[in-house]
């Protein structure tokens, strides 16, 4: 059981590293290298001061490339899993979950950043941020309830509830500005 939990953790860490490498690769393609990469317990933050100088298309490309790489890895690892490589299924699923989760419309995630860039084309920055925050609350409430239900039914799995609490805290603390 301990090995299984550790394997799941390693698969998730690998999927997150793949995700962030996708962003870095897209930044290099757009000739917009990062200024700083900060790794903390809860996030990997890539700072790019030239982001405001990029075109909207470049920003969308950079933001979406992280989840896109996760989706591509999911397809590749899943196809290899179907060819009798059973140990690759957890890696495939970790990439799928990382890609999907990062597309949630919460400002501190890629989905919120992507939504912000798109909304700023039609609305002011303040209105775009307000729309994303309202959408985030609408999404996070049922997700938090689901996390609580998973906790009660599994007796030990609090990961979804913990992540939702973290995202709600980042929403309330306004640590989720567009970078």
Outline the structure in words.
It comes from Ruminococcoides intestinale. Belongs to the peptidase M50B family. This is Site-2 protease family protein. Its cofactor is Zn(2+). It is a single chain. It is built from six helices and two strands, in the order αββααααα. The protein is mainly α. It has two domains: 2-103, no CATH class; 123-179. A two-stranded antiparallel ribbon has the order 1-2. A hairpin with a 4-residue loop joins strand 1 (36-39) and strand 2 (44-47). Helix 1 runs antiparallel to helix 2 (56-82), helix 2 (56-82) packs antiparallel against helix 3 and helix 5 (125-154) packs antiparallel against helix 6. It is globular and about 45 Å long. The model has no long low-confidence stretch (mean pLDDT 88).
Q: What would you call the structural class?
A: mainly alpha
The proportion of residues forming helix, as a percent range, comes to 55-70%
Overall 3D geometry?
globular
Instruction: Order the strands across the largest sheet as they lie in space.
Output: 1-2
Tally of individual domains: 2
Proportion of residues in extended strands: under 5%
Q: Give the termini distance in whole angstroms.
A: 40 Å
In short:
The protein is mainly alpha-helical and 179 residues long. The protein is built from 6 helices and 2 strands.
What's the SSE blueprint?
Layout: H1 2-29, E1 36-39, E2 44-47, H2 56-82, H3 89-102, H4 110-119, H5 125-154, H6 159-172
Antiparallel strand pairs: 1-2
Helix pairs in contact: 1-2, 1-3, 2-3, 2-4, 4-5, 5-6
């Amino acid at each position: 059981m301990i090995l299984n939990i550790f394997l799941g953790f390693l698969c998730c860490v690998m999927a997150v590293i793949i995700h962030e490498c996708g962003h870095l690769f897209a930044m290099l393609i757009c000739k917009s290298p990062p200024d700083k990469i900060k790794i903390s317990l809860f996030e990997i933050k890539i700072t790019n001061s030239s982001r405001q100088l990029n075109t909207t298309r470049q920003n969308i490309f950079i933001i979406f490339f992280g989840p896109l790489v996760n989706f591509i890895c999911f397809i590749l690892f899943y196809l290899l899993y179907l060819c009798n490589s059973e140990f690759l299924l957890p890696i495939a699923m970790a990439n799928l979950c990382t890609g999907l989760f990062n597309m949630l419309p919460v400002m501190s995630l890629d989905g919120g950043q992507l939504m912000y860039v798109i909304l700023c084309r039609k609305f002011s920055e303040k209105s775009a941020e307000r729309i994303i925050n309202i959408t985030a609350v609408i999404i996070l409430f049922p997700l938090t309830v689901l996390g609580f239900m998973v906790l009660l039914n599994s007796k030990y799995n609090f990961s979804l509830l913990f992540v939702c609490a973290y995202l709600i805290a980042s929403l309330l603390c306004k640590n989720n500005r567009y970078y």
